[in-house]
Amino acid sequence: VEAQRAHVGPINGFVANPLLFPMWVMFLISGMAETQRAPFDLTEAESELVAGYQVEYSGIRFLVYFIAEFATAVAFAAVASTLFLGGWRMPEPIAQIWPGANEGWWPILWFFAKIFVILFVFVWLRGTLPRFRYDQVMKLGWQKLLPLAIANLLFYAVLIAFLQKPVS
Length: 168
Hints:
The protein is mainly alpha-helical and about 170 residues long. The chain has helices spanning about 20-35, 60-85, 90-95, 105-130, 135-165.
């Protein structure tokens, strides 16, 4: 989080760096697919007519299943907030106006607010996007995201190699 302070922008974090924004988008898409949130919830879509796994479990079993599924989304949001959104630090424009924004209990509140925003985006996308078919998910992962991630990795490897100072 402290390393992100050099990349100060409107959000405060690595997302503010335009070169790292594609990495943020790939991370969000991959996280939604990994946590099996809609539109990537393929296991729920197997039996649309009878509500999928909800038929198998009821009562406390369903509650435990649902909480475990949602806990993965919360854990992903916490990691995403730490890696890309500046973690527990207040967004920089507000922190310059309010000097005490990153002291006391405020960092905990900023961290939970960022987690809440990411979870809100998850819920928003769940209600907005249609569910993908299995072949569409595979095409997105293997033909779009993987080549983009490899190109991103090679770009940063070349960039770091050219920016690195020679050893004298």
